[in-house]
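Please decode residue identities from the backbone states below.
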């Protein structure tokens, strides 16, 4: 019963947040992405200087990349529909995570009501999944060169996990040393260092194209920041209302009688 209630509440939150997120992306990010894609065919690839064996491997890798990118949703309705589906799935997973954190906080005896607790949890989610990793790795527009994908994914994971542990230490411990621990955890990924290429990420473009893409890149960083803020604000409001309406009552009915959850104020 609890599982079913969590799933349905998570889906309700996901649909609400997914609709808002798709609309904000369509207004903020999509025009920048389409404008950047218009310059992609002007990119000048660096000449190959590797040995024949490496060149053969590179050719195979290029062929595999072309095969992997053979299908893409068409611009317009199809692209928007797939974006909406991805946004709903992402929001659903984040809603379940927010519910889990709120349930733990309720079990630990928090005095916050559902909506404020959800907003605090959403603020932590924004810090963990966007703000802290994005300081080291900015959002990238199409056509930009970057470090190896695996290196960037590994560092992003380190930054997100470090931020999550920092939030957990502040919320879970009572010792004043928890602030020192949180600061050390937050500093860890930046002590390791985010992976970046030494060359200009837009070195393959010339003149007007490079200037336009540089400006679009700055706009994209701000656009993704606002999109993320909107996502987590909507997530906090929708998850707080859904948790209060559907999840919290069944948690109290199931565990409250056994003395495991505090009764509502």
């Amino acid at each position: 019963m609890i599982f079913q209630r969590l799933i349905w509440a998570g889906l309700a939150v996901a649909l609400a947040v997914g609709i808002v997120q798709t609309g904000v992306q369509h207004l903020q990010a999509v025009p920048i992405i389409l404008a950047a894609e218009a310059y992609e065919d002007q990119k000048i690839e660096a000449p190959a200087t590797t040995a024949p064996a490496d060149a053969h491997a590179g050719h195979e890798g290029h062929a595999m990349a072309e095969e992997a990118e053979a299908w893409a949703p068409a611009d317009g309705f199809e692209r928007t529909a797939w974006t909406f589906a991805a946004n709903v799935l992402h929001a659903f997973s984040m809603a379940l995570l927010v519910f889990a954190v709120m349930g733990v906080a309720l079990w630990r005896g928090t005095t916050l009501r559902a909506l404020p607790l959800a907003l605090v949890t959403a603020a932590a989610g924004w810090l963990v999944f966007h703000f802290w990793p994005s300081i080291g790795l900015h959002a990238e527009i199409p056509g930009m060169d970057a470090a190896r994908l695996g290196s960037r994914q590994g560092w992003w994971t380190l930054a997100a996990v470090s931020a999550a542990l920092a939030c957990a230490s502040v919320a879970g411990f009572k010792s004043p040393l928890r602030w020192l621990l949180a600061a050390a955890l937050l500093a860890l990924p930046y002590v390791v260092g985010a992976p970046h290429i030494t060359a200009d990420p837009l070195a393959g473009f010339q003149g007007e194209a490079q200037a336009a893409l540089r400006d679009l890149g700055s706009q994209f960083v701000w656009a993704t920041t606002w999109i993320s803020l909107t996502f987590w604000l909507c997530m906090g409001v929708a998850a707080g209302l859904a948790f209060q309406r559907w999840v919290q009552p069944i948690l109290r009915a199931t565990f409250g009688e056994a003395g495991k959850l505090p009764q509502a104020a």
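Observation: The chain has one domain: 2-146+197-258.
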